[in-house]
Amino acid sequence: MTQTPLWTRDEVLDAVGGLAKGADWTAGGVAIDSRNLQPGDLFVALQGPNHDAHDFVAAALAKGATAALVHRMPEDVPEGAPLILVEDTLKALTALGRAARKRSSARIVAVTGSAGKTGTKEALRLVLSPFGKVSASVSSFNNHWGVPLSLARMPRDAEFGVFELGMNHPGEIRDLVDLVQPEVAVITTIARAHLAFFKTGAAIAEAKAEIFEGVQPGGAAILNASSEYYGLLRARAEACGVTRFQTFGKSAEAQLRLVNAELYARCSAVSALIGGKPFDYSLAVPGEHWVMNSLAVLAVVRALGLDLTTAAAQFTRLKVLKGRGSSELVSMPEGAFELIDDSYNANPESMRAALSVLGRSKPREGSRRIAILGDMLELGSESRSLHAGLAKPLLEADVDLLFACGADMTALFEALPADRRGAHARDSVALLPIVQAAVKPGDVVMVKGSLGSRMAVIVEGLRTLDRKHSDNQPLRAANGR
C-alpha cells in the first residue's frame, strides 16, 4: 500500500502561494535544519538573526530534500531544482501550519505555563498513545517558528495533537494559539519568570491566559485550583467563552485533588481524589512538580472523556528529558558519582523543585549533595533578591556545597553559611575546572541555570571528568570540601 504523503506540491502552493519551479513532488516531512533533514522532507529556508538557511538549500537537496521553500533564489542550486519561491518563508511556514490545522480532525491540546510545559507535553504524548496516534511538538518547539513547524509536521491521520506554547512578551501566546486552535488548553503553573518584561506575577498570568482565546467552542480549560492566580485565569477563560473546566491541585475545590504523595529519589507514589473518588498511581520520575504535572495530564484525559486508569498506567514509563532533571552515573578512576542534568533552563520555582529533588537523593555515606547553579535570567530588578531567596530551599534540601556562576548568583552564594560555599566564578567556563576538581565518588551533583548561563558546559565537562593525577591539576574548592 502506498503511503499518503504529508504534503503534495499543490497543497503547499494552495497554503502558501508563491511560484513553483522544477518538477512535481510530494513531501513526507518538513525540515528547517539541513543537519537533521530526512530524505523526502520539504526544506523551509528560514532567515534568522545569525544564519540564513538559503545558504544550505543546495546541501538540503543533495541530502534528499524533495523540494525547498525559499524567498530568494539560492546561487548554488542546480538548474531546474524543485523550489517554491515566496515573499517570506517564515510567513509561508506559518500559513502551512495553519493549513495543517485546518485539514486535521485530531483532538488538539495546547500547553503553556512558566514551568513544566515540555514535561507535561511529553507526558501527554505518552498517556494519550493507547487511545490513538499522537503528534506532538519536538523538544521545546514552542515559539513563532516552532509551533507552525510542529503543526506542518502533524500527520494527516493523527488522532491527537499536543502543542507547547511559550512566551516572554505579551501577545506571543495569542498569535500561537490562533494557529493551534485547541480543544483543551492547559496552564501548568504561573511563576516569577521573565520579570524583565512583566512587572508582576499577575501580568505573567494575564499573558498566559491568552491561550484561552483560541479554545474551540465546547472546549475545556485545565487550571491549578491551588494557584494564587486561579481566579484571574478562570475569569479570563470564561470571558473567552470557555464553559468547561477541569481543575487540579491541593485545594479541596480541585476536581483532581492531591491527597498524598510519597516522594522518593527516583519515583513518586500518588494518592488523589478524582471526582471525589480515590485514585492511586505511580510515577517513574521524582519530584512534587512532576506530581502536579501528572494531575494536569489526567485532567486533560478527563476533559477528553478517556479512561483514566489506562492513561495513568503509562506514568510508569515516563522518563525525564535530557537537561530537565535526567540522572546518570559518571565513572571516575576511584568510583562514580551521580549527575543530575537540569541545565536546560531555570526560574525561581523550577530551581526550588530541582533543589527538592536533590534533597531526596541518596549520596554514598560520607559523600555530599552538591548544587552547581548558574544565573536565572530575565528576572529584572528583583533578580538578586530572587537568587538570594533560594538559600532557604537549598538549606532545607541539606545541600552540602554550592558552586555558582554569574553576577546574580553572588547573592545566593553570599546568603549561605561559609561552610556551604564551594566557589563562585564569573561564568560556567571559569567554574568548570573548579567543580571538576571538587567532585568525588559517591557525590550527587545537580547542575541547573537559565539556558543563557550555559550550564551545559559544566554538564559536558563533568561527563568527561578524568581525575587521574597530572602536572596541571585544577585548583580545589576554596573551602577544601
UniProtKB/TrEMBL annotation:
Mur ligase N-terminal catalytic domain: residues covered: 29-99
GO biological process, one term: cell division
Localization per record: Cytoplasm
Catalytic activity entry: D-alanyl-D-alanine + UDP-N-acetyl-alpha-D-muramoyl-L-alanyl-gamma-D-glutamyl-meso-2,6-diaminopimelate + ATP = UDP-N-acetyl-alpha-D-muramoyl-L-alanyl-gamma-D-glutamyl-meso-2,6-diaminopimeloyl-D-alanyl-D-alanine + ADP + phosphate + H(+)
Recorded metabolic or biological pathway in which this protein acts: Cell wall biogenesis; peptidoglycan biosynthesis
Major enzyme class: ligase
Residue ranges occupied by any Mur ligase C-terminal domain in the UniProt entry: 335-450
Domain of life: Bacteria
InterPro entries, alphabetized: Mur-like_cat_sf (IPR036565), Mur_ligase_C (IPR004101), Mur_ligase_C_dom_sf (IPR036615), Mur_ligase_cen (IPR013221), Mur_ligase_N (IPR000713), MurCDEF_CellWall_CoF430Synth (IPR051046), MurE/MurF_N (IPR035911), UDP-N-AcMur_synth (IPR005863)
Family note: Belongs to the MurCDEF family. MurF subfamily.
Database matches in PANTHER family: UDP-N-ACETYLMURAMOYL-TRIPEPTIDE--D-ALANYL-D-ALANINE LIGASE
Identification of the protein by name: UDP-N-acetylmuramoyl-tripeptide--D-alanyl-D-alanine ligase
